[in-house]
Design a protein that fits this description.
5-stranded mixed beta sheet; 60s Ribosomal Protein L30, Chain: A; 5 strands
């Protein structure tokens, strides 16, 4: 009896302990002892976007602090060129065109070109300016007045991502649009063009002449209608007679004083006679008398 009591009293305790150990073991078996996953790598040296940056924002004329016009998409260019690629770029350009048409009080829009840092500063600045100019000229060819547009390139001066990574460089290669003038009055910072290269936006007429230069017009030669013997007109004129008095005589021609001029035949005979007589007379008169 005492044995049964002891065993009966021990059964609930053993069962409770067994249940507790089983639950502990079960909970221990379900625990995850794996190492925590590695954190998602972030872009090193990433510059925080400016306070006004909001990809979902819409330009509000009542907020003069924000001059950027946010348009969904991105304008893409050929590598190291200012040629706009078709596709996504076309929709961005159409939306930008619609913005200018729907907001005529925006009298001046600044188109900014930006690049990464893989080339020289001068090359990047020139390339970004040419790309912004290509966007402006697309707008001009589609009816926007060139006076409303300003093309400027900053090159790599204003990055929004690290140039050490491909993703960062892709972010830096971008085109931005900023309101610069509203109803003829300056809008936004005064030094917005500082540090950039500004290019002249051509008018629609200038762009047309640039693509279709006029052909040079040369005057037509007059037809050759011969009358008579035209070769007579090209014959040399007859030589005029020479005036003897107008001829300058060379020295020794008998004009200079003391010049006897040419010797005549009679003069030669006289010289022979005088020479012979002189010799004979000299011989006769020259002989000494005999002693």
């Amino acid at each position: 009896m005492d044995q049964s009591k002891k065993s009966g009293s021990a059964t609930p305790l053993v069962a409770t302990l067994a249940m507790t150990l089983g639950a502990t073991a079960a909970s221990a078996g379900c625990a995850d002892h794996r190492l925590p996953p590695n954190p998602v790598p972030t872009l090193a040296f990433r510059q925080p976007p400016p306070e006004w940056f909001d990809p979902n924002a819409v330009w509000d004329p009542n907020k003069p602090g924000d001059t950027r016009v946010y348009i969904k998409g991105k304008i893409v260019f050929d590598t190291d060129k200012a040629t706009i690629k078709k596709g996504e770029s076309e929709q961005v350009l159409k939306d930008l065109h619609k913005f200018l048409v729907d907001n005529p009080w925006v009298t001046r829009l600044r188109v900014e070109g930006h690049t990464d840092s893989r080339a020289s500063d001068e090359h990047n600045e020139e390339l970004s300016a040419e790309r912004s100019l290509a966007v402006c000229h697309w707008l001009v060819e589609n009816g926007i007045d060139h006076i409303r547009l300003v093309a400027v390139g900053y090159g790599e001066k204003k990055p929004i991502g690290p140039n050490e990574t491909e993703a960062g460089r892709q972010e830096n290669r971008r085109t931005e649009f900023h309101v610069m003038e509203v109803e003829g009055k300056p809008y936004g910072p005064k030094n917005a063009l500082a540090g950039g290269r500004v290019l002249t936006v051509l008018s629609a007429e200038e762009l047309y002449l640039k693509k279709h230069p006029p052909k040079p017009v040369f005057p037509k030669p007059k037809p050759f209608n011969p009358t008579g013997n035209d070769f007579d007109r090209y014959k040399p004129a007859p030589a005029k007679p020479i005036d003897p008095d107008a001829v300058i005589k060379a020295p020794g021609s008998g004009d200079s004083p003391g010049d006897a001029g040419p010797i005549k035949k009679d003069d030669k005979k006289d010289e022979k006679k005088e020479g012979g007589g002189g010799a004979a007379g000299g011989g006769a008169g020259g002989a000494a008398p005999p002693q």
